[in-house]
Each structure stands twice: as C-alpha cells, then as structure tokens.
Write a structure and sequence with these properties.
ten-stranded mixed beta sheet; seven-stranded antiparallel beta sheet; mainly beta; 452 residues
C-alpha cells in the first residue's frame, strides 16, 4: 500500500517541483545574447571602416566576418623586387657550371684587345669549388699558341633579360695583367653586331689597381660612324681583392645605374649621350663572366703576377622590378656533362665553317682615318679557321691585308676587329677564310668604305 501510495502521489509532487519555464525554452535566448556580445567589437570596426553609425553597423554586424575575409585575401600591391633568375653555384667540387644556365667558351686569339689567354672548359680553369662558388682561374701555361689559360661563361641563348636589377657577388684577384669582368651584351649581337647590340660592363677591375672598379656602357653612333662609351671609375679605400663585393646595375627604361655593394656610384640616361649617339638599352641582354690575362688596357703580366689567379663568384642574381621583362628561353635538351679532365676535342670542318657576317655598318672610320673592321667567324664544327682580310681600291689593288688563325668556340661566333690607316678614297673590304684542311671557305663579308 505504501509503495502504491507513493506511486500515486509522485505525479503531483513532480508537478509542484517543476520550474515554470524549462531550460530548453531559455537556451535560444541565451545564445542570442552571447552572439550579440561577441559581435559588438566587429560592429565597432565596421562602423569605423564603413563610415556608418554604430546602430547601422550593429544591424549589419553579421556581415563583418565576410567583409574582413575579403579584405585580408586581397593582395597588397608591392614594388619589392622579385628574384627571377639566379645561380648560386652549389655544384660539387670540380663540377661544371650548370649547362642549362651557362655556355662555356673555348677560344683564343686576342679578342681584338691583344689579350693573351686561351679560354678552356677544363676544371682547373672553370669549375665549382664545392663551397658555393664558381672558380675562374688563370694559369700560366701554354695552350694553342697562347701563354695563359683561363675561363669564360655567358648565358647566350639560355637567358636574357630586359631591365631589372642584375647583381653578382664576386671576389676578384689582384696582380699585374689580370682583368676580371662581369658584363652584359645585347642578345641580338649575332644579328646586328657590335656596337649596335650594346654592352653594359658592370665590373671591370685592372689587377694592378684593385682599389678601383670601372663600369662602362657602350652603344653605336652615326656621325662619325663607330661606337661610343661612357666609363665611370670608382675608387674605394680598401682593396676590392680582399673580400667579396656585390657588383650590379639597376636598369629601367631610360636609366642605367651602376652599383657597388648596393650603393649607386654612376647613373646614365639618354640625355647623357651626344647628338648622333643611340641609346640601345631597351631590349634583352645576356650575362657574361670572365677573367682575361693581358690586353691593351691592363698590359701584360710580369714577374710579380701571382699564378694561378682565381676569380670567385658566389652568386649571380637577377631581380625583376615593375618594369622588368625577363625573356624566357627554351630549356635545352639535357646532355651528359663531360669530366673536367676531358674537354671536347675539336673536329675538322668542311669548307662552310665560315658564314656571312660582315656588314657595312660594322666598318667604321675615326677622324684620323683609322679603319676598324669588325667581322665574326661562325664555327659550327671546327675550332680553327684562318681568316684573311683584304682592303682594295676600285681597280683591285690591294692596299692592306691580314691573315690570321682564329681559334673559335664550338657552335658559336667569335668577333674580331682589325685596324688600319687609309688615305682618302673609296675601298672595298673582303674577308675570306680557310678551314683546317686548307679548303677555301665561303666569303664571310664584303663592304664598301669611303674615306673622306
């Protein structure tokens, strides 16, 4: 009976003890209150950023999260330069520089400046050092009729850029007759020749004066026909051969600034030129690194010159700017890399080793009636071509002639320059060549020259 009474009484007790409002009915209100409290800071921010009243912002506070996401996801415009091309030279010791980035020259012949070195692809002249540097080493040794060997690389047909910041971190050698350089040449050099292609010398240092860096830009002038150059020589307090330094150019439309360790020390614009001189720096240029020995400018080495002499290149980098236009080039087909101790041997060539090259615009005369003849040797199969330059009168009388063997790089061009003095008159210039077998090669150039 007792249990039954309890069972009967329990529904009434439960009804008396139950709260008037169930917690389930209060929960939605509590959620709304907390939501409003959480959104108040967003409403204040929306009021500030949108320029509306706080009440209006509170009414639209639920839109703030979406608005902030849209704001934060919008890219912020920036003018910070972007690295677009580089080589850090992180190859193993005695490995070749990256063949997808650098072309290696195998050539000699003086290069129009009476230079004494022969450029090779041997590891002792040109290789990575295993410590993140490219080593270009000049050695006093006989090679192909030259007394010195060294190294030269460029990015022709692999990479070129129009505008941007081009930099290289380099440690140069010191010593009489040493001539390290970091420079750039117009990518249309093979089509138009020098000086129309243009040249930017970002760093040239003469080994006997390692306190001074020379920077030069070159172009073409019309009257008198020839080339022009603007050179700046910048001297510092300590030897540039003691440590690495960053040599570069800030290049934009109508402006070239030469820099040392990020500091501008020379600036050129089209207004820097004289009448008749062309500003040719509005097209792609490719990059070059080399260590020359001897030449008209530095002079020959002497007994004080330390050999071997090494130029170390830590890195080369190209940064874009809002006006930069890097020129993409096709990726070459991968090929096996020869060992440094076994460079490719020259192959004899048929009689077509020399191709057309000389054009009238490449024949220039100075005020003193000095004739400068530029031509190029096309060497697609051989490393040796004998070139003959002849200047004749209208009647065919030979006034001047030269005959010289040119050791050119495989599958490339080698530019030459000959100089002579002529009296007033009209002349014909003819350049011919013979291959290693003695067969007559095709005529590489003809031009008409008038000396007034």
């Amino acid at each position: 009976m007792k249990r039954h009474a309890e069972r009967v009484a329990w529904p009434h007790v439960a009804a008396a003890m139950a709260p008037r409002h169930s917690w389930r009915s209060i929960l939605p209100a509590l959620v709304l209150v907390f939501a409003v409290i959480a959104l108040l800071p967003h409403a204040a921010e929306a009021s500030r950023l949108r320029g509306v009243s706080f009440s209006e912002a509170a009414a639209s506070a639920t839109d703030v999260s979406a608005w902030r996401h849209q704001r934060d996801s919008t890219p912020t415009p920036t003018t910070t330069p972007t690295l677009v091309w580089s080589d850090e030279f992180n190859g193993a010791a005695y490995s070749y520089p990256d063949a997808s980035k650098w072309y290696t020259m195998i050539a000699g012949g003086g290069f129009g400046d009476n230079e004494l070195q022969f450029y090779t692809s041997r590891g002792r002249n040109l290789s990575c050092d295993g410590n993140g540097n490219l080593k270009i080493t000049a050695i006093a040794e006989e090679e192909s009729g030259h007394d010195y060997t060294s190294g030269y690389v460029d990015t022709r047909q692999l990479y070129a850029t129009t505008y941007g910041s081009i930099q290289a971190r380099i440690k140069v050698p010191a010593g009489q007759g040493l001539w390290p350089a970091f420079w750039a040449v117009g990518a249309d050099r093979e089509e138009v020749g020098a000086p129309l292609c243009g040249e930017i010398d970002m760093m040239e240092i003469l080994g006997h004066d390692p306190f001074t860096v020379h920077a030069t830009i070159h172009g073409q002038q019309d009257d008198p026909p020839g080339d022009w150059e603007l050179t700046t020589s910048h001297t510092v307090a300590t030897s540039l051969a003691d440590d690495f330094h960053i040599y570069g150019v800030n290049w934009s439309p109508g402006s070239i600034q030469l820099t040392l360790d990020g500091v501008v020390y020379a600036a050129h614009t089209p207004s820097s030129l004289s009448e008749g001189q062309s500003w040719v720096f509005n097209k792609p240029f490719y990059l070059l690194l080399n260590l020359a020995v001897g030449g008209n400018w530095p002079g020959a080495p002497d007994e004080t010159t330390p050999f071997p002499a090494t130029m170390l290149v830590d890195w080369v980098r190209v940064y874009s700017t809002p006006t930069s236009s890097p020129t993409p080039t096709p990726t070459p087909t991968p090929s096996s890399t020869p060992t440094p101790s076994a460079p490719p041997a020259p192959t004899p060539t048929p009689a077509d080793a020399v191709g057309p090259a000389l054009a009238a615009r490449n024949v220039t005369v100075k005020h003193d009636k000095t004739c400068r003849i530029y031509f190029r040797v096309n060497n697609k199969q051989s490393a040796h071509v004998t070139v003959r330059v002849a200047i004749t009168t209208k009647s065919g009388v030979i006034k001047k002639h030269w005959s010289r063997r040119c050791d050119t790089n495989v599958n490339g061009w080698l530019w030459k320059k000959y100089t002579c003095r002529l009296k007033r008159g009209t002349y014909r210039i003819k350049v011919t060549g013979r291959d290693v077998a003695g067969n007559r090669a095709s005529v590489v150039g003809r031009a008409k020259l008038v000396v007034k």
